[in-house]
Amino acid sequence: MKQTLSVMVVNQTGVLARVAGLFSRRGFNIESLSVSTTEDKNISRMTIVVDGDEGTIEQVMKQLHKLIEVIKINNLTGTSYVDRGMALFKVAAGAAERAEVMQVVTIFRANIVDFCPNSLIIEATGSESKIAAIEEALRPFGIKEVVRTGEIAMARGIKAGSKKGGDAK
Amino acid sequence: MRTGAQALIEGLKQQGAEVVFGIPGGAVLAIYDELSHAEIKHILTRSEQGAAHAAAGYAKASGRVGVCLTSSGPGATNLVTGLANAYMDSIPLVAITGQVPRAMVGTDAFQEVDITGITQPITKHNYLVTNADDIPRIIAEAFYIAGTGRKGPVLVDIPSDVANSLCHKEAPAELDLPGYKPNYKGHPAQIRLAASALSKAQKPLIYAGGGVISAQASAELLALAEAGGIPVVTSLMGKGAIKEDNPLCLGMLGIHGLPAANWAAMHCDTLLVLGGRFSDRVMGDRCKFAPEATIIHIDIDPAEIAKNIAVRIPIVGDLREIVKEISAEAKLEPQKDWLVELEEAKDRNILVFGDRRRNDESGEELLDGGAIIDKLTELTEGKAIITTDVGQHQMTAARHYHPAGPGLFISSGGLGTMGFGLPAALGAQIACPEQTVICVTGDGSLQMTLNEMATIKSQKLPVKILLFNNKSLGLVRQLQHTYCDENYFAVDMVGNPNFLMLAMAYGFENLRIEDPGDIEPTLKKALNNGKPTLIDCSIPKDEMILPIVKKGQSLNEMSF
Ligand SMILES: Cc1ncc(C[n+]2csc(CCOP(=O)(O)OP(=O)(O)O)c2C)c(N)n1
Fold first, then answer.
1. How far apart are CA B208 and CA B265, in angstroms?
2. Of A22, A55, A68, the CB nearest to B179
3. Residue B539 pLDDT more than 50?
4. What is the structure's pLDDT at A169?
5. Predicted ipTM of the assembly
6. Pick the CATH number of B188-348 from 3.40.50.1220, 3.20.20.70, 3.40.47.10, 1.10.10.10
7. Which of A60, A160, B468, B498 is most buried as measured by Cβ atoms within 10 A of its Cβ?
8. pTM of whole model > 0.90?
9. Is the pLDDT of residue A52 over 60?
10. Count of A-B CB contacts under 8 Å
11. Burial degree of B223 (CB within 10 A; 0-12, 13-18, 19+)
12. Is residue B474 lining ligand 1, measured as CB closer than 6 Å?
């Protein structure tokens, strides 16, 4: 089953390589990974979506914890959280199909961000399932190119006593 | 104000490093220059692999962090096997490597290699130092990380211009490692559960791993075992955690283990695992391991829990304290029926220790490796430090040497590294100059690092090499016997040197054991001569390590 891990790491060169290396050498499968700085410039957050059974996910988390730069890991799956990813779709739509494509765009609250005589680029933001749905809806028109970001995720609310609850040091 | 190199040496001294094993080179000139007038002993080994293994032998014999120092490029890559070995066996090391100057990093400069990249999966942590100001902090962190929690190797890569530039900072009074907080205190509720499971057990057993030795928990283990009359088996790495002449000790378990130890593991109802990691060498077929047991697993590393086998009661923390707490909490009573059963099971060990001096066709008595090690145990009373290489001789040593305490049996477990034994003996002898140190090796293994005989000679160390010379890669030969229909290929050591002349060339005393009758007088001579000595023992090629657990079999299906 896919699980979403939110991993706080010390913002240092090499830490991404360490995390990625750990996944490949232990045979864990990364579905997606995104890294960014946080409210604290010394700390980065990695959102890692990983596929595996319960035992595998437990090992992933424990092995990640062993990396000296990993400060905290939250398995968001099964908790209340918000996740978003973004995708760009290039769709081959000439004048004839445009109206229909624009309808799909409106329904999914996506945006058209580029307009050429025989193609459109559509930007969609949302959860994994929403992006999958829009991709399905666009497929009949002929998707020429897709690019997607990794998922980013955040727990809802502020946990009492949580050290990294969101307030910068 | 001082240079990075000076700050490094200062840091090593602050950390209490007394010995550094290494080989110089262009990228560490400044560091060696400083080292030359520091109160730190430098041991010039003959290869960097030797330096890493020697530092490991030093660490294992002394319980301290071992240090090695090499140049960039090939000097650094030669460390790789030693670091991987230390990582697998949780040996605390700090390895310092030189690197090309910062401006040249990434340009494929002469002797440049990305050693932090290469060693990422085989170090507990590593650093590429980019600013001389960071050296004091990084050295303090490196020793702290190497020597705490689950111990392991840490590598620090220092570009030569960083060593030459000025360092303006001191090590911080307190280390700030938010992502590294080893947990020492065992969870009280889990400890109560473990104590109650042990109190209820009718067939309890303790499996002691290398963790007992690194946590220095032998006394606590003994107290618990004796209070409850609980028998103990050990892994290869756990040898020495308990004295093997203790009637409760059943010896080593595993695929090369003793039948009684394996029998106990397969029949116990409660298995208390102390600092062991359920390696495949220990369990045989893991699905069939200890089928009746409630398993209690105590380890300092949370990632070991439930990695290879499901456990009922996991406890993460420092073994020494936790075992003490379990002892205090549990209401133990020796289980008489179980102990009687075990006494009977011990008879099975006769298959290993009994009359095994087989006669060949001519009717002559054959020299047997086990008999040599039995005599060695007797003559040294198990108080000598034994290091081993990897192969049949290692298993013979593990089965027949009975160390009198922890730190006296030093072997390469997780990685199974041929070439470990001799440099490890060198390191152990540096750590313990007063003790007898003996490397039990094979003709294959010895030839991987025999250049360290020169280091041993140069340091005037009385290290003994007990060479089990079967003119073959014996353990592989045995595997080919069992799994390849006796199709022996690439296992004959054609071209072996005359080891006695080789010993002479290196300035070692040389002795020979050819017949059973030679064993006692020759060992006595070697143990009493106070000199580096090689003993060439003519072991028959066909000697096998038996019984053994074959692939896919459980520990109670030993083949004879
Ligand atoms: C560095 C390394 N290379 C290869 C092996 C595979 N291997 C395991 S045991 C063995 C033979 C060891 O021969 P020797 O040292 O003569 O010991 P013996 O088994 O004959 O006692 C080999 C080649 C290994 N463990 N380590």
1. 12
2. A68
3. yes
4. 29
5. 0.86
6. 3.40.50.1220
7. B468
8. yes
9. yes
10. 38
11. middle
12. yes
